[in-house]
Amino acid sequence: VREEVRNLEYPEYASDISKSNLLGNYVFSQDKELIDKISNYIGTKPDQIIITAGCDGALRIIAETFISKNDNVLMPCPTFGRYEFHTKMMGGNCIFLYFDEPFEFNLDKVKETIKERNIKILFLCNPNNPTGHYISQDDIEDFVKNVNCLIVIDEALADYLGETASKLIDRFPNIIVTRTFSKFFMLASLRIGYIIVSEKLKPFLMKVISPFEVSSYSIERAKEVLSENIKPTKTVPIKLVKGSVDGVDGNNFRGLEGRDYKRVFMGIL
Ligand SMILES: Cc1ncc(COP(=O)(O)O)c(C=O)c1O
């Protein structure tokens, strides 16, 4: 039987990766070559990167590692629904912070709430899904200087801007950034993303993540898209409008280009 299995032919769709037997083996997900490519692309140290099953997989691992029963977890709203899901799965309390104006994202109010409600973790989506609101890196830096809780910055949509808060991690080790190949790189069904985290917090996450979190096929495809030398801000036409991202042709923002995005969004609410 072993002999027969060895001689099995791969189906045509997998023929390009069959030579290295990538599909047949368990392959450790923390692939050094991909980590080096990500590190090059983002401009952070390879030691600060963890490859995950998409950004959602990153959020899950972070929640499993850091959220315990009855922890207060803050999420400025409206925002991406998976923060609530992962928090509740771990028994944490979701603290939803709404602003008078959904596109405002008032960081002073976020700061106040962190102090008043004894917040352990803040989920900050930048740019925010579904509003498209973008917090500048200067504002993020001012904000983190005065905040001691764990700050998870979800940058699933940040490739469209070519900016990242991960450069702050050396100075502020309480920041964790999550990213993905699903949006700008359009590999959503391959379920591949990554976490950027300080060397201090990384070992806690590495204890929780599966060694085989991501398929070898996804790893190879992610390496390919990063080899194409893509320049984010040049390939996708985006326009910054009063601190918000307008007309991003990504999965969540499709169809808004040239329209009154604010009116469309308020209509949906
Ligand atoms: C803000 C945000 N974070 C995370 C995700 C999940 O991305 P992934 O496909 O990498 O799991 C999405 C997907 O819609 C998103 O919009």
Could you name the key traits of this structure?
binds pyridoxal-5'-phosphate, 269 residues, alpha/beta, 9 strands, two-stranded antiparallel sheet, 11 helices, single chain
Helix/strand structural class: alpha/beta
Order of helices and strands: HHHEHEHEHEHEEEHHHEEH
Low-confidence stretches: 233-259
Envelope shape: elongated
**Share of β-strand residues:** 15-25%
Q: What bound compounds does this protein have?
A: pyridoxal-5'-phosphate
Helix content: 25-40%
- In total, the number of strands is 9
Q: Treating each run of at least 4 consecutive H or I residues as one helix, how many helices?
A: 11
Largest sheet, spatial ordering of strands: 1-7-6-5-4-2-3
Terminal Cα span = 59 Å
Mean pLDDT level: 85
* CA gyration radius, whole angstroms: 20 Å
How would you sum up the major sheet? 7 strands, mixed
Describe what this molecule looks like in 3D:
This protein has 269 residues and is of the alpha/beta class. The protein contains eleven helices and nine strands. It has helices spanning 2-6, 15-18, 32-42, 54-66, 82-89, 107-116, 137-145, 202-208, 216-227, 232-235, 261-268; strands at residues 49-52, 72-77, 93-98, 121-125, 150-154, 175-180, 193-197, 239-241, 244-246. Strands 1-7-6-5-4-2-3 form a seven-stranded mixed beta sheet, sandwiched between helices. A two-stranded antiparallel ribbon has the order 8-9. Strand 2, helix 5 and strand 3 (93-98) form a beta-alpha-beta unit. Helix 3 runs parallel beside helix 9 (216-227), helix 4 packs parallel to helix 5 (82-89) and helix 4 (54-66) crosses helix 8. The longest helix has 13 residues, at 54-66. The model is unreliable at 233-259 (pLDDT under 50). Residues 54-56, 80, 125, 129, 154, 156-157, 180, 182, 188, 193, 252 line the site of pyridoxal-5'-phosphate.
